[in-house]
Amino acid sequence: EPTVRTELMEQIPPIAIFLQESQPKFPTAFFEYLMPIVVRYLTDVNNQVRKAGQEALLILLEQDLVAQSDIENKVCPILLDLSAPDSDDEYKVEAVNIICKMASMLSRTTVEHMLLPRFCELCSDGKLFQVRKICAANFGDICNAVGQEATERLLIPKFFELCSDSVWGMRKACAECFMAVSYTTSPEVRRSKLSPLFISLISDTCRWVRQAAFQSLGPFISTFANPSSAGLYIREDGTLSIRPSTQDVNSSSCQPSNNITFMSSSTKAT
């Protein structure tokens, strides 16, 4: 019964945590018995079971309970199969979604070598706009996961494609994550490539795209500032913040605060 398999998936993370805490007694139980179940349920015929399996996998990754070898040899190959060009549409959409979510939890080497090539292919998926939409919405997180060199070499050309996509929702998603993408690039790329690209979004024929671009204008401009002098920094949750100066901290509490937070791609309009 699918409901039984779904309930089982919900119990996997707490069981895995217990086994981790009791590792001297159960050194290989998780890797031999539980991890194969999680991987198998990623391809279950029932979508609720698959969803539960995906959620369990993300929790396991967040808790750092999955060995690097299992990620590279068991999890990534399944996701690559599910996101292949000839894969079922529903499976492909789910696969690209979980690839984007898990990218920030994996090592840069694993993401760049195993997942980045497929992500770039999915950005150009001409069959499913839902796949391109997920890629556009999570583009900033992928850039942050792989770093500046891979972003400028492989991802920026794909970002240009998505920013000129025929579907306005794609261009809107790009405008919303523009600051996060810009923050990962060099000042020269920001000036010579991203600035003209942003102008095209702020001049877009679609009102919703223009509105999203104007909302991202301030955060995008802030990426040109020198962090040491401007006090700008990116928090772990993906928000751009201004660190108050020593003078502000020592000033009277009745003075207005100088803390300002700009939301990046981590907080998107629905």
From TrEMBL:
TM ranges: none
GO MF annotation, one: protein phosphatase regulator activity
Annotated keywords: Repeat
Annotated PROSITE patterns: HEAT_REPEAT
Top-level taxon: Eukaryota
Gene3D superfamilies recorded: Leucine-rich Repeat Variant
Cellular-component GO terms for this entry: cytoplasm
Region spans: Disordered: 245-270
HEAT repeats: 115-154
Protein name (database record): PP4R1 phosphatase
Organism: Anhinga anhinga
Gene that produces this protein: Ppp4r1_0
